Amino acid sequence: MTKANITYQRKIKYGVIGVIGFCAIWTMLGHMLLQYPEYQQFYGFHPFLTVKALGGLMVSDFFWIATLASIKRVTIGLLVALILAVPIGIAIGFYDRVWMLTNIPIQFLRMISPLSWMPIAILVLPSFEEAIYFLITMSCIWPIVLSTAQGVNRMDRKLINMAKNQGANDIQLLLKIIFPSSLPNIIVGLRLALGISWIILVPAEFLGITNGLGSSINDARDTMEYDRLLAIVIAIGFIGFVLDVAVKNLEKKTHLRFIINK
Q1: How far apart are alpha carbons 15 and 12 in whole angstroms?
Q2: 169 is in which domain, residue-wise?
């Protein structure tokens, strides 16, 4: 058995142990909660009832429609952020003057919580849907900008000089050297942005939206279906985990391809 297989098996083993430990703690806390009569209304938070409600969600068309609506919002917000952030990041990483001009404003803006823009987005934009896209874009753009700039800044400038000596123009430099060299860092920024956007999504969907995972949590809270509420929370975590693993695999493949090409 190879060392890689042993490492993989250890990861699986400890991962399973971690999940079992988490479920054991959850069950213990659920039983402890039920010892107090004033908390009897929260019996739905018990893991057995939550798992049962989660099974009901899996066969519910309403849940999958809400999930697709939420994933659509995150996807559109991420795409808009990528379109805006990658050129800005390349310019910041390649030109020192652009970095000096934009460093303080970017550091200032990225420290503002994306949810702080919610009242402004509602006032300025014509619909709640567009306001959500704006909030997700604002949460995604800065990690991608900074990660892209870092990738460009670390690039070997000798490659640029060699290409210029061979007569390469700016477009060729961008497409053949700068963008491919910074692509692994762009994927890293994309993964960070995805995690932030998935966290921002639920409170953003507390706006006047009738579909989506955040709206589903609101509905379960209003009807006091606490087992369904917690089941939706668990589902959100699982979907976010799957999305993160997908981007992580893309990151590994991109990084490996970059090393081979290099």
Answers
A1: 5
A2: 61-261
The answer as to whether 226 is a domain residue is yes
Half-sphere exposure of 70 (CA within 13 A, CB side): 30
Residue 4 placed within a domain:
no
To the nearest whole number, what is the mean pLDDT of the chain? 84
Structure tokens at 58: 């899996």
CA–CA gap between residue 207 and residue 214 (Å, rounded):
9
Q: 151-182 b/e with 16+ CB inside 10 Å = b? A: bbbebeeeebeebeeeebeeeebeeebbbbbb
pLDDT digits (tens, 9 = 90+) for 205-222: 887 777 888 888 888 888
Specify the CATH number for the domain of residue 135: 1.10.3720.10
CB-CB contact of 170 with 180 (8 Å): no
Q: What's the total number of domains in the chain?
A: 1
What is the pLDDT at residue 212?
87
> In sequence order, what are the residues at sequence separation of 6 or more whose Cβ sits closer than 8 angstroms to the Cβ of residue 142?
85, 106, 109, 110
pTM of this prediction exceeds 0.90: no
Distance CA 252, CA 257 (A): 9
43 within a domain of the structure (yes/no) = no
> Looking at residues 102-111, what average pLDDT do you find?
91
For residue 131, the surrounding DSSP H or E stretch is helix 128-153
Pair 229, 49: CB distance under 8 Å: no
CB of 121 closer than 8 Å to CB of 135: yes
Q: Which residues of 235-246 are buried (b: 16+ CB within 10 A; e: fewer)?
A: bbeebbeebeee
